[in-house]
Amino acid sequence: MKLERERALDHARDLVAAAWEEFDHARDIEPPISPELLATLDLPLPEAGIDVVEALDEAAEALDQSLAQARPRYLAYIGSSGLEIGALADLLAHSYDPNLALHAGAATLIEAQALRWTAEFVGFPAAGGSFTSGGTVSNVTALAAARERAVPGSRRSGTPPHAVAYCSADAHYSIVRAIELLGVGSDNLRAVPIDGHRRMRPEALDEMIRADRASGLTPIAVVGTAGTTLTGAIDPLDAIADVCSEHGIWMHVDGAYGLPAASVMPERFSGLERADSVTVDAHKWMFVPKACGIVMVRDESTLAAAFGHETSYIPGTRNAVDVTLEYSRPLRALKLWLAFRVHGATKFREAIQRNVDFARDLHVMAATRGWEVGPVPDLSIVLMRKPGIDNAELVQRLQADGRVYISHATVDGETWLRPCFTNVRTSPADVAVLMDVADEVSSV
Ligand SMILES: Cc1ncc(COP(=O)(O)O)c(C=O)c1O
Known about the structure:
- The protein has helices at residues 5-23, 35-40, 52-64, 84-96, 106-122, 135-150, 154-157, 173-181, 202-214, 237-247, 282-285, 300-307, 333-368, 391-401, 428-442, and strands spanning 128-132, 163-168, 189-192, 218-225, 250-254, 277-281, 293-297, 372-373, 384-385, 408-411, 414-417.
- The chain has 444 residues and is α/β, with parallel strands linked by helices.
- Helix 9 (202-214) runs parallel beside helix 10 and helix 13 (333-368) packs across helix 15 (428-442).
- The mean pLDDT is 96.
- Pyridoxal-5'-phosphate is lined by residues 78, 134-136, 172, 174, 225, 229, 254, 256-257, 281, 293.
- Pyridoxal-5'-phosphate binds at residues 78, 134-136, 172, 174, 225, 229, 254, 256-257, 281, 293.
């Protein structure tokens, strides 16, 4: 299984360079999948290989006919950017292929340093944590630690039926999933009511906790969201921290999407520093390629209490597997480490601020042009809709048009267009195109 290395590398270099150049500008149409490619993608298991250049071309063609979040007018869901230095980092990391399950020498130090840099960037006093495959795994990791602290020994004896947890009605589904996987059961996850800005109401949280305690239930965690997936709302973290500290409950902050913005508007995230654990995804608003999630805790012994163990084939000192959910782990941290080294934290802040400004500009533009708009964006998600037409159908037509790619969201039963700016390549001109195309397509 020896590759013709130089030829493969030269060709891969050309393909990557062409892709990067393409991403500098949006394309005006999303091409359909060609019949030739469909036929290739239907082939059975190849018994013999083909030439590496031909195979790389096939792969590049398939990717070119895929929805790529790296493109500057991909504004659906919460996208990423496939930042160039991150892609190079992945190539390097996957070539050396260290396993971060155990102590891996300098690679382990890179992960620890990248974690410290991230903590400093967002303003959280992390004493431990790890890089994960994303927000979902980060949230389940943090909540496993929370459960063990609230009910010591529950990792072995099972979650007692009196355990409950709290998050806002707009929290990401991964919180539900984590609570289900941990055996708390989503029926015991309280959806705390939200205010007019779709932020958790801390006084309602306090009342729910008091009522649950009075009925003999055991709260294991409160999850505040620092940037909801639906609208980008930031829960009042300081007030939530007050409630948690009064009742002695673990506070987790899910900042998978929004937390990088704490680097440019720390006052909006005040109270973050009081959390027990924090989730942030570098593959969302820190622009690096997937997967690059981070979970951080203020007290590393809480992770060890939930995950520490002995196996006969890994004797000895504490390893990463004693504080993480996963076993084999790639060096996901390298892409963020290299991105900070090459671009510096200032460039990150500037790019995040630009995305925030785009959302505010679009919000004003849409209102001026007769669109109904949601609240002024807290972060980089805009809610807008054209009165008098079916907005879900409008999004379908916009996706078919291909010049911009956005998704829709249902908020209180109403359908809204929901552009989200997290791409480092998006320019003011792309924002103007989005508005013009939305106007054009909605008026035919
Ligand atoms: C607030 C929030 N939490 C968690 C997640 C899940 O993250 P991942 O898709 O990386 O698992 C998301 C994804 O959009 C999110 O927005």
